[in-house]
Amino acid sequence: MSAARGFVVIASVVLFSRRAAPQEGPGQPPVAPAQIQANAKTGSGNFFGRLLNAYLDDWKGTANEPEAKYRGFPPPESNPPFPWDSWPYGGSPTIGVEDASEGPLMKAIYGEPFGDAIKRSRIKVYGWVNVGYNASTSHGNYANAPAAYYQLPNSIQLDQVTLYIDRRPDTVQTDHFDWGFRLTNLYGLDYRFTTAKGVFSDQLLKNNQKYGYDPVMAYTWAKGGDNLYACANSVNDGNYGYNNLQAYYLTWYHKFSESWFTATEAWYMYERNVPDVTNTAALETNANGAFCNPGQTKCFAPEWAIVNYVEKKLSKSDYLTLRNEYFDDIKGQRTGTKTRYSEHLLGWGHWFGSTILVRPELRYERSYDNPAYAGGTKNDQLIFAADVILKY
């Protein structure tokens, strides 16, 4: 694996008018700027003793977590049982909500002699380890494809080890400029779905390594019980190249009650001048060709999909997921098979405290026009999968 020699650095400056007074949420006291509590220690002893105590307090439910302040609407959901409390929105921090989270790693760091200075800086280091397993009706190397993420059937994989270093801007206050940054790093099988050509891409495009490193990012932003947003994920000439998809999304979140919500997303993607699958000399490594019309050596290759999630909160520690998706790979360029697909999933999430999440799921997929599974020999696929996430 090629050595990782850098990070992706994102800096954001958030501007607020002094005239925009914070709005208190229901039952909220007037919002003041976040106060830094000095000498916050998790237990006593050395670093590893405090780290262990932080996990034990979390699993026993005795951890003393500060409640985040907010202005405007309160977060629509709770974390746990859901993986987030505000509707996910790519590319932005949660505006108007205090970053009050303290993971086990930071609680241990705060107990060091320099801990108070780190806490005042609001710079945090955190992440998770995600290990998964699946049992599939498909067999062979990467035979679960085009199903994403658990492509290796009947095996245990290291999906993700992430490391975040960030400082989130204080968007609750309105009396001064604030700034933030995030450095996000990922190692594991899932680098195969985040790699950009030219950024450590030899791991995948030349060596096809099972595990690899990629600098990646994720942000969230939301407001209220409904959220509708449109996103142009990438905009350029759209000419054929490794993962040079032009992608457009429309996402709607809706909260039905305190325990039910739904999320629906539709997207449209394309590449231009994609070589026909028979034009092998023009194909790039790991970049599929298209099933063009007879006589064409290149063509326009679009695809579209719509997916819906229904989420049910069962308890403070448990939730159910029902997912249904329809996908049309019109020219077969995205998945390597020209066909329509449907996918149906039932999943359960259970938290141990707020640091361990277990997620078993059962998923059925079908390709309607051509066989797409088990190396192009089957029209359907049934997978039982489970993963465990440990946050730090």
Characterization of this structure:
The chain has 4 helices and 14 strands. It has 392 residues and is mainly beta. The chain has a domain at 126-159 and 220-391: Porin (Beta Barrel). A hairpin with a 4-residue loop joins strand 8 and strand 9 (260-275). Helix 1 (47-60) crosses helix 2 (104-110). It starts with 9 loop residues before the first strand and ends with a strand. The relative contact order is 0.15.
**What can be said about the biggest beta sheet?**
14 strands, antiparallel
> Cα distance, first to last residue?
25 Å
| Whole-number mean pLDDT | 81
CATH topology call of the domain at 126-159 and 220-391: Porin
Quick overview of this protein structure:
The chain is 8% helix and 37% strand. The chain is mainly β. Strands 1, 2, 3, 4, 5, 6, 7, 8, 9, 10, 11, 12, 13 and 14 form a 14-stranded antiparallel beta sheet that branches.
Looking at this protein, list some descriptive labels.
mainly beta, 14-stranded antiparallel beta sheet, 8% helix, 392 residues
Write the layout of secondary structure elements.
Blueprint (H helix, E strand, L loop, with lengths): L9 E5 L32 H14 L43 H7 L4 H7 L1 E4 L1 E9 L18 E13 L10 E11 L13 H4 L6 E4 L10 E7 L13 E10 L4 E16 L22 E16 L4 E12 L9 E14 L3 E12 L12 E12 L1
Antiparallel strand pairs: 1-5, 2-4, 3-4, 3-14, 4-5, 5-6, 7-8, 8-9, 9-10, 10-11, 11-12, 12-13, 13-14
